[in-house]
């Protein structure tokens, strides 16, 4: 999995100790009430009982129950009236019980904010399922409330640091979509935190106890990616000497992040679309449809409209994924978050290294003024490097040492479409330098990707960069 272990769990949301959930059971049938109450108790709920709407109203006001399990037919009216009475913002969940559930009643009840319904005579397994569902939903709501509280107090939302208004919008979207089953497209420049958003979506979903897998579609060879995703049967192609279980099966019950989705071939995009529409997939070489019990998140650092018009992202898949899009703003549009993040990364390093290094005001100002084309990832790397260099006070100079390299003060010249212009007769070393710097710029300072793409080791890349840096400091081109 791509998700770094160091980041995982680092800041699992702290929530106050969960008190027991309270269920109010409203029914005029004594036996029914007591047996439901017994079951609810077994599932860890505290219970209150009411035999009429009147009694129920009073108990709702007095105890603010987490769950109201209410019969539709009560001596003094319909159970649905309770819902109408309860303020829309209330946290109470409703489950409707009915002796003669017509489909219409059930549907209209669902529409009115009832999370589930039961028919009489109920089977206890179904009721247990409903109660477990309520408990999970309540757990997620509590977790979300915990996060909102954290945001107000600490300027962070789980692992996501930042309280600028564009980020608050992002948190609102996350909070709205996380508990649903919707596919989410996460778009944003490289290093803006798309993977972190995917982790947050997973952790705030009912799937959080199941795995989250991140597949980088750009990093898996095009020949292998279909079998990586869907698995393959033994003998389905040369070299397939055993059955292989793909990510769709391994992530069953959980979440699958398809990172760099535009790197997937158009043919595979069609297959993915079919899986999203039908809910089933086939292993390569297999003919038995397998249920795709995964929630799909997709991420891209490309401009979506451009990706569609250039054909990198099929339009039909785009529309299917675009049901819910979270656009992560670049760091330079997040105001004071830059300093907040710099402090956050510094706190982490101080804690890990048992040091007490601190920013000077000038350094913090310099942080606010940089364009951060590599976004949070660049900031994090720069903080780390400056931390290593500084004794106690981290001065502005420590940051300057890591400004993006420029050839003789000028940005590396490209033709604007990611191609380099090189005059015939240019020295090979100069071409190499141009190529390395332009690739580095293309990947927004990501050295690993640059080295991988150029087919050189990371060590070689570092060596070259330090030579170039020494050259530019001494004024050479
Ligand atoms: N809001 C944030 N708060 C704290 N850390 C963050 C935040 N956003 C990003 N990071 C950190 O910055 C680094 C880059 O984030 P991430 O890998 O999620 O970016 P990305 O958008 O997926 O980048 P890419 O497009 O290159 O895959 C990670 O180390 C991540 O933990
Ligand atoms: Mg990523």
User: Would you identify the regions where 5 or more consecutive residues have pLDDT less than 50?
Assistant: 1-17, 406-416, 473-477
**Alpha carbon gyration radius:** 28 Å
How many DSSP helices?
19
Give the proportion of residues in helices.
40-55%
Each distinct ligand: adenosine-5'-triphosphate, magnesium ion
State the gist of this model.
The chain is of the alpha/beta class and 477 residues long. 45% of the residues lie in helices and 14% in strands. Strand 8 (156-157) and strand 9 (160-161) form a beta hairpin.
Mind explaining what this structure looks like?
This protein has about 475 residues and is an alpha/beta fold. The chain has 19 helices and 18 strands. Strand 1, helix 1 and strand 2 form a beta-alpha-beta unit. Helix 13 (about 335-355) packs across helix 15 and helix 18 crosses helix 19 (about 460-475). Adenosine-5'-triphosphate binds near residues 192 and 380.
Features:
5-stranded parallel beta sheet; binds magnesium ion; binds adenosine-5'-triphosphate; alpha/beta; 477 residues
Write the layout of secondary structure elements.
Blueprint: E1 21-26, H1 30-42, E2 45-50, H2 53-63, E3 67-71, E4 73-74, E5 77-78, H3 80-85, E6 93-98, H4 103-111, E7 114-119, H5 124-154, E8 156-157, E9 160-161, H6 165-177, E10 184-187, H7 194-203, E11 212-216, H8 225-230, H9 247-250, E12 255-259, H10 266-278, E13 280-281, E14 290-291, E15 295-300, H11 304-309, H12 315-321, E16 325-327, H13 337-353, E17 358-359, H14 361-369, H15 375-389, E18 393-394, H16 396-400, H17 428-442, H18 447-454, H19 458-473
Helix pairs in contact: 13-15, 17-18, 18-19
The structure holds adenosine-5'-triphosphate and magnesium ion.
Magnesium ion (MG) binds next to helix 7.
């Amino acid at each position: 999995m791509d998700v770094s272990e160091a980041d995982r769990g680092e800041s699992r949301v702290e929530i106050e100790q969960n008190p027991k959930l309270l269920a109010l059971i409203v029914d005029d049938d004594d036996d029914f009430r007591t047996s439901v109450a017994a079951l609810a108790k077994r599932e860890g709920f505290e219970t209150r009982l009411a035999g009429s709407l009147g009694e129920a109203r009073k108990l709702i006001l007095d105890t603010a129950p987490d769950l109201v399990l209410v019969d539709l037919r009560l001596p003094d009216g319909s159970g649905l009236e309770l819902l109408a009475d309860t303020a829309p913002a209330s946290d109470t969940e409703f489950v409707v019980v009915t002796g003669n559930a017509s489909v219409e009643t059930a549907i209209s009840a669902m529409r009115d904010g009832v999370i589930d319904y039961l028919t009489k005579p109920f089977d206890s397994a179904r009721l247990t399922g409903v109660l477990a569902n309520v408990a999970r939903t309540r757990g997620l709501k509590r977790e979300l409330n915990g996060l909102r509280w954290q945001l107000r107090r600490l300027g962070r939302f789980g692992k996501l640091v930042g309280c600028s208004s564009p980020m608050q919008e992002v948190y609102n979207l996350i909070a709205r979509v996380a508990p649903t089953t919707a596919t989410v497209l996460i778009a944003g420049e490289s290093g803006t935190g798309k993977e972190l958003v995917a982790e947050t979506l997973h952790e705030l979903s009912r799937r959080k106890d199941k795995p989250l897998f991140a597949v980088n579609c750009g990093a898996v060879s095009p020949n292998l990616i279909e079998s990586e995703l869907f698995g393959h049967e033994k003998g389905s192609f040369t070299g397939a000497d055993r059955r292989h279980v793909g990510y769709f099966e391994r992530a069953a019950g959980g979440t699958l992040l398809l990172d760099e989705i535009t790197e997937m071939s158009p043919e595979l995009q069609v297959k993915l679309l079919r899986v999203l529409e039908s809910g089933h997939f086939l292993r390569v070489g297999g003919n038995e449809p397998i249920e795709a019990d995964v929630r799909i998140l997709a991420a891209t650092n490309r401009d979506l409209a451009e990706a569609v018009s250039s054909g990198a992202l099929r339009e039909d898949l785009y529309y299917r994924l675009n049901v819910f899009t979270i656009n992560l703003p670049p760091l330079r549009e997040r105001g004071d978050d830059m300093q907040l993040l710099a402090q956050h990364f510094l706190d982490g390093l101080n804690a890990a290294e048992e040091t007490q290094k601190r920013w000077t005001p000038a350094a913090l100002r310099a942080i606010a003024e940089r364009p951060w084309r590599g976004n949070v990832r660049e900031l994090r790397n720069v903080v780390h490097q400056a931390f290593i260099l500084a004794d106690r006070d981290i001065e502005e100079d420590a940051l300057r040492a890591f400004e993006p390299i420029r050839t003789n003060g000028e940005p590396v010249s490209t033709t604007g479409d990611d191609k380099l212009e090189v005059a015939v007769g240019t020295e090979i070393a100069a071409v190499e330098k141009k190529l390395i710097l332009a690739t580095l710029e293309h990947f927004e300072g990501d050295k690993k990707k640059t080295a991988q793409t150029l087919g050189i080791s990371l060590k070689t890349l570092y060596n070259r960069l330090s030579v170039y840096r020494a050259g530019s400091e001494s004024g050479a081109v």
